[in-house]
Amino acid sequence: MSADRAGQPITMRQVAEAAGVSIATVSYVVNDKKGARIGPEARQRVLDAVKELGFRPNALAKTLSSGSSNFIGLVADAIATTPFAGQIIHGAQDEAWKHGYVLLVANTEGDLAAEEAAISMMLEHKVRGILYSTWYHRAVTAPPALHETEYVLVDCFDTATPAPAVVPDEREGGNVATRLLLNAGHTRIAFVNTTTPSPARSGRLAGYRDALQGAGIAFDPTLVLDAAPEQEGGYAVAGRIRDLGVTGVFCHNDRVAMGLYDGLRELGLTIPNDIAVVGFDNQEVIAAHLRPPLSTVALPHYELGAAGVRVLLGLQEAPTGAPLAISCPPVPRASV
Question: HTH lacI-type domain location, by residue (predicted)?
Answer without folding.
Answer: 10-66
